[in-house]
Amino acid sequence: MSGLDGVEHKTLKVNGINMHVAEIPASGSGRDQIILFIHGFPELWYTWRHQMTALSSLGYRTIAPDLRGYGDTDAPEKVEEYTYLNVVGDLVALIDAVAGGDEAVFLVGHDWGALIAWQLCMYRPEKVKALVNMSVALSPRNQDRVPMPTFRRLFGDDYYICRFQSSQILFFLSTEQTFKRPENAASATKQWLTQEDLEYYVSKYEKKGFTGAINYYRNIDRNWELTAPSTGAKIGVPVKFIVGDQDLTYNSPGIKEYIHGGGFKRDVQLLDETVVLNGVGHFLHEENPDVINQHIHSFFQKFI
């Protein structure tokens, strides 16, 4: 079940794991401009269904993987196999597999996918023509501030990221409780998820669970340690950043000041535009897909 016509599913061997990849070939012009979509938590490739359909009809080859630990992609057992370096390595190998070793792709990220996209652009900018990143702004590494103690100090031990650090966490008691309780389904369906969408997510998380996805959070301090050489590094690819004004990430302490006060532009040196969408929350590409599709297309057209 994909919920979409025209989606091709394949499994590629990348960076030592089997990665599930969904793809819609370009239609019309025959151009082979690739857009690679990187999902966040607790999403799958499927979260990009609206963008893949719309942008493939405009001549792009649209590709969205399940990241390691998610969906139909392998989920390594060791927590330490979910660092930025592991996941960026997966994406570099995926780009080489779908685009060829000397080619670059257009990149779109959201949530954890945005965090990973920032890292990919920092370490391997030659792989990315341009980036549309959503929801999570760049967080420059602070060599004096270890992330998890900072989260605990700011938000307390009950903050979800802090709770995720425990291997005993029962955040999602079951996919049945998470996705299929009537009040959850009804609430979501009124907004931007259909019952078919919910059933797709349930079908995947019932098989794999959430451990792989939560392991990304359990590597936050390890990522801070591993990325010490990048302290002070800048993003050198063209970027458009989009966020909803109702998104909790946008309303976190210090974020608006960083985004609009010059720090963001200093660190993302080819920042073309920051777009704040009114009345939109965290899952902006699903809540308002037509607007997001237009933003992606208009930005990437500058580089074709």
Automatic annotation (TrEMBL):
One term of GO molecular function: hydrolase activity
Similarity-based family: Belongs to the AB hydrolase superfamily. Epoxide hydrolase family.
Name assigned to this protein: BnaC08g47760D protein
Matches recorded under InterPro entries: AB_hydrolase_1, AB_hydrolase_fold, Epox_hydrolase-like
Domain AB hydrolase-1: 34-289
Keyword terms of this UniProt record: Hydrolase
UniProt superkingdom: Eukaryota
Provenance organism: Brassica napus (Rape)
